[in-house]
Amino acid sequence: MILRAKFTKENYLKYISHLDTMRLFQRAFRIADIPIKYSEGFNPHPKFSIGSALSLGISSEGEYMDIELEEKMSVEKFIERMNKALPDNMRIVKGKYVDGSSSISSIISWAFYNISFELENGLTHEKVQSEIEKILSLDEIIVKKEKRKKGRIYEKEENIREQIGNLNFKDLKARKIEIEALLKTGDSGNLKPIDFLKALEKYTDIRIIYDTVKIHRIELYSEKDNKIESPLV
After folding, report:
1. From CA 100, how far away is CA 77, in angstroms rounded?
2. 33 and 46 Cβ atoms separated by less than 8 Å
3. Phi, psi of 59 (to 5 degrees)
4. Which Pfam families match (predicted)?
5. CA 120 → CA 113, 132, 146, distances in Å?
6. Which end of the chain is more exposed for a tag (fewer CB within 10 A), N or C?
7. Helix, strand, or coil here: 113?
């Protein structure tokens, strides 16, 4: 049986890698005495998977994982035990049993971010809004993405327009800008927030002080019949 859980990863935990996050959960499962199922073979490991790996330096309040259990336990008890075993900045906030026909990684399609940074150039609220509207009006947005193949890192140009779902300009105070962005993620395509920011600079008059960039993932979504929805629906 598969228990799908939503969890947070905030503050200093944004600086631990995806692999270390997996190890943290493995330790928490043992401490919390969760009846998790193990793989067979000489080196058995707990059977769970995280929906979409979070890049280093990005915090989140909307991550998901699937846990395969040997026996059913109440969602409430699972959350209570796990939150006692996890560090303060990582919380299980929701859970639900699913049929397991589709893995969490296969259904995640979109990620919703809050992105803030300071501007190098002084722009008015109206100017920033018009620049956001301008990039959304484009049919083609070409950026160089870093790729990895057989241990080799290289750059490849890619049109990312279809990987930008929506942008919402939230605020501008003393050159600090805040944007909400719905970006593609998962098996069907992946747009990292940093690549989106490169495109924002390339195609608009917005100039970013990268040392001030803060990225927070608010939620992950699946897509069905051209509608996005929570993986817990």
Report:
1. 21
2. no
3. -90, 165
4. DUF2344
5. 22, 17, 25
6. C
7. strand
DSSP 227: E
Measure the CA–CA gap between 200 and 110, rounded to whole angstroms.
Answer: 19
**The CATH number of domain 109-229, selected from 1.20.58, 1.20.120, 3.40.830, 3.30.70:** 3.30.70
Contacts of 9 (CB under 8 A, 6+ apart): 21, 54, 59, 60, 63, 89, 90
User: What's the pTM value of the predicted model, to 2 decimals?
Assistant: 0.92
| CATH architecture, domain defined by 2-101 | 2-Layer Sandwich (3.30)
* Placement of tokens 């005495």 in the chain: 33
Residue 156, CA atoms < 13 Å, CB-side half-sphere: 9
pLDDT tens per residue across all 233 residues of the chain: 999 999 999 999 999 999 999 999 999 999 999 999 998 888 888 999 999 999 999 999 999 999 999 999 999 999 999 999 999 999 999 999 998 778 899 999 999 999 999 999 888 899 999 999 999 999 999 998 877 777 788 888 999 999 999 999 988 888 899 999 999 998 888 999 999 999 999 999 999 999 999 999 999 999 988 899 999 98
